[in-house]
Amino acid sequence: MFLPLSLSRIVASPSNYPSNSYLWQPPYSNRARKKSVLVDKDSTELIELKREVSKLKSWCKKIAASHKEILKIEDRYRHAEILEELQENSDMIKTESEFEYESEDKNSLTENEFEDESEDDE
To answer: Residue spans with biased composition (Acidic residues) (predicted)?
Structure first.
């Protein structure tokens, strides 16, 4: 069947297609209906999966929060151990003033000690 020339121009003219789309489809095409049917069948599974994902996300947040708390406790424990070691070592370590005081004591002899030493020499 041949179309008259005037009618073939109207059907084939690009002005009949919307300018923003490559191929024009009616709003309720078979393709759109098939997609909506597929979504309806899988919507229950999709909802269940979304719930599971949200549960997993909340568990991850709880785990991360508890991990931060554990790290804080470990830091406190380490600081406490370091402080204990420093206190134990501070008894063994003398300050500069204590060293100076002891060195002065050794260098300076009392008069009695000096007299005792002089008597020993004789």
So the answer is: 112-122
Q: Where are the beta strands (DSSP E) in 25-119?
A: none
For residue 94, the Cα-to-chain-centroid distance in whole angstroms is 44
The model's pTM is 0.36
CA proximity to 11, closest of 19, 22, 3: 3
* Token reading at 106: 């050794």
Going by the DSSP 8-state scheme, the letter that residue 57 receives in this structure is H
Tokens of residue 81, six digits: 């151990």
pLDDT (tens digit per residue) in 41-95: 567 888 888 999 999 999 999 999 999 999 999 999 999 998 888 888 776 666 6
Q: Which long-range contacts (CB under 8 A, 24 or more apart) does 71-80 make?
A: none
Number of domains in the chain: 1
